[in-house]
Design brief:
Helices cover 26% and strands 24% of the residues. It is an alpha+beta fold. The strands form 3 sheets. It has a 4-stranded mixed β-sheet. The chain has a 3-stranded antiparallel β-sheet with strand order 1-3-2, covered by helices on one side. β5 and β6 form a beta hairpin.
Amino acid sequence: WLLLEIGARQKQEVRAIFEAHKNFYEHIDVREDYAGLPRVVKGRRRQVDKIVISGGRPLYGDVRISGAKNAALPVLTAALLTEETCTFSNIPDLVDIKTACKLLRNMGVKIEGAGSMSLSAEKITESVAPYDLVKTMRASILVLGPLVARTGKARVSLPGGCAIGARPVNLHIKALQDMGATVDLKGGYIEARAGRLKGADIY
């Protein structure tokens, strides 16, 4: 049970709070004090699904830890920076990884393997990241910098929204501008060009 002492005029407000969380509380009751004023709200928590772990036994064994998606995506796109073959291990088997590989292949990158992957961007045939691919994965913006550094130009669609809210790409744009790139927004695409990027303090 949850007991909440309230002021004499807070009955409706507090009851509304409980009602808004009725998935977690039931049997909501307002009790009066000796003067007949509502002073205590009582609510019992509902039973929820839970995992019960019976201990008393030592744990042992080996667990293979998968690579982190947010670490794998940047290193995969970084393969665009060089003509040499790059090999990465412990790449997780996730939808976003598959989408990133599809995007890189669309740019001419040759990719072999799974888990342990070899990427060769010897010849970049495309410097455009179309909306059809970018819309499914916000991390597609990561190809912007490597494409400009390697080919001198890039045209990347602005990514859509995501489940955790708005995450603007202004930091990517500012970093490229600080390194000497010209960046324009046209028709829902980020268009960047640079002769040769120069070093800069990025923060």
